Amino acid sequence: MAAPIVALADVGKDFAGVRALHGVDLSIEPGEICCLCGENGSGKSTLIKIIAGVHAPTTGTVALDGETRDSLSSTDSLRAGVRVIYQDFSLFPNLTVAENIAFTREVAGRIGFVSRTRQRAAAQEALGRMNVDVDVDRLAGELNMVDRQLVAIASALASDARLIIMDEPTTALSQREVAALLDVVKALKADGVSTLFVSHKLDEVAEISDRTVVLRNGEKTADRPAAEFDREALVAAMTGRTVEYGTLSVGPVAADAPIVLDVASLARAGSFDGVDLTIRAGEVLGITGLLGSGRNDLALSLFGLLPADSGTVTVDGRVVQLRTVQDALDAGIGLVPEDRLTEGLFLDHSIGDNIVIRTIDKLTGALGFTSPTKMKDAAWRWVDELSVKTPTISQPVSTLSGGNQQRVVLAKWLSAEPRVLILCGPTVGVDIGSKRQILDLLGTLAATGMAIIVISDDVPELLDVCHSIALMSEGRIERRFDRAAITEAELNTLLMSA
Ligand SMILES: Nc1ncnc2c1ncn2[C@@H]1O[C@H](COP(=O)(O)OP(=O)(O)OP(=O)(O)O)[C@@H](O)[C@H]1O
Ligand SMILES: [Mg+2]
Questions:
Q1: Are the folds of 6-239 and 259-497 the same?
Q2: Cβ proximity of 83 and 159 under 8 Å
Q3: Is the separation of the CB atoms in 479 and 467 below 8 Å?
Q4: Counting runs of H as helices and runs of E as strands, what totals does the chain give?
Q5: How far is the CA of 284 from the centre of ligand 1 (A)?
């Protein structure tokens, strides 16, 4: 039998004060789909960075194709056919799609210089293998999240990958694209290409995994054929406890609750049209629809980023103009964005500063003096409330795991106590146990009289936290359902056919 493509033996990794991995053995065979699961901060991304040669292990060894070493360089790993698509993936924004794809091929040492025409043809072929239609002449920086993600995968495919590692590849994708991506993974397997797949979405894992590996607090707690795992066993291996599903996170809206947000005939050319919405104090409204349905543009518009051409928005009975983000903030509207890395956080700044940045005004006393103790207390309160896994609030946000960065974005907005809070994919990248906790917290906030909009296509999540759900398609709100009036299966069907 051929040697495993990679084999880790007794691998450990310490960062200053944090043991990210401990005593991990893992090997990946040719043509195998291996899923890596674990709570936020359990060490998944760190493990991947060791295989990619980005981090050297503190202890243990790594073998490529049966050849053992203490550590790898990223070139070793690339040469062996390992391609990583990172959670916070990076294409070169100022290069075109074709150039990005060609670049990976060159770095992987597969080809020398090629003409522009050949570059474009290779890029088109790789995208074609995935059934994806992206203009190869566009700059990567102009693409939306989904297309960037797909181009990153196409780059790997175009450069003779043997092991493709995907760190939460589906977080930015809607259902239809997820299905397409999983098909790509299966097709790769048929070609003998291995995949190491990290996801918090357990139904995806169940669909594609041959073998499932679970990390908890940096240690491997399970490594078994996927068929031996049911959902409960998997959650138990991840969390060490059982987690309840399908329980409602919100209480009823008071019959006499006043309307907080009233949107009438809102329109923006090319984005959305004729949008009417009312949300009462304490109410959570879900907005769903496919990418391109206008749901995200509507959110950005209510936050002053994409001003509407016509229509009115009223907050607490006062008509507000939303031409800039400052207008939205003044009107008491907050937005938790989908792309936390570019829109939500100052990565080099401390966890504490990121959390209190929106509340400085409130914490500033009459003399304009901000008490460092008050700021610290406020930051710690939210770190506790959202269980951000960190020993200190003074280290940069960039040292947190992906799911913990997402919690900091949430904390930043929750601490600002807006009247209207819009959340795009609030639990994207958050592990299953914590998801419950975050949804419950939204329920608690709603109960204080906030109006909340959750933009998501995670159907169970919508049904858990929303009082009603609006379905958008082609820029219009097609229907609005009471949550009690629709089932998970019905909503899934509507979404897939929207
Ligand atoms: N560069 C770093 N400096 C300090 N600590 C780090 C660094 N990178 C990771 N860590 C810590 O190592 C631990 C494991 O992080 P890792 O990113 O591997 O988690 P993860 O399993 O990928 O989580 P998630 O699901 O949230 O992405 C975390 O406690 C994290 O804060
Ligand atoms: Mg991670």
A1: yes
A2: yes
A3: no
A4: 17, 20
A5: 32
Q: Which amino acid is at 44?
A: K
Q: Where are the domains of the chain?
A: 6-239, 259-497
12 within ligand 1 shell (Cβ under 6 A): no
Q: How far is CA 6 from the centre of its chain?
A: 27
> What pLDDT is attached to residue 93?
82
What span, in angstroms and rounded, lies between the C-alpha atoms of 277 and 272? 13
Distance 153 CA to ligand 2 centre (A): 18
Q: From the CA of 368, how far away is ligand 2's center (Å)?
A: 39
Q: Measured from the CB, is residue 402 less than 6 Å from ligand 1?
A: yes
Phi-psi region of 24 (alpha: psi -120 to 50; beta: other; left: phi over 0): beta
**Is residue 42 within 6 Å of ligand 1 at its C-beta?**
yes
What is the strand order of the sheet 59-64 is part of?
18-28, 6-15, 59-64, 67-69
- Is domain 259-497 in CATH 3.90.550.10, yes or no? no
CB 447 within 8 A of CB 390: no
CATH classification (class only), 6-239: alpha beta
**CA-nearest residue, atom 28 of ligand 1:** 41
| DSSP three-state, residue 399 | helix
Residue 195's beta-bridge partner residues? Answer: 33, 164
Q: Which ligand is the nearest neighbour of the Cα of 37?
A: 1
Q: What's the pLDDT score for residue 245?
A: 59
Name the token pair of 297: 């543009």
- Are 471 and 289 a contacting pair, CB within 8 Å? yes
Ligand 1 within 6 A of 44 CB?
yes
N-terminal to C-terminal alpha carbon distance within the chain: 47
User: At 35, which helix (H) or strand (E)?
Assistant: strand 33-38
Ranges in the chain, pLDDT < 70: 1, 87-90, 108-114, 242-247, 339-343, 360-370, 498
Q: How is 459-489 classified by DSSP, letter by letter?
A: HHHHHHH-SEEEEEETTEEEEEEEGGG--HH
- Answer positive or negative: Cα dihedral of 357, 359, 361, 366: negative
pLDDT computed for residue 176 by the predictor: 72
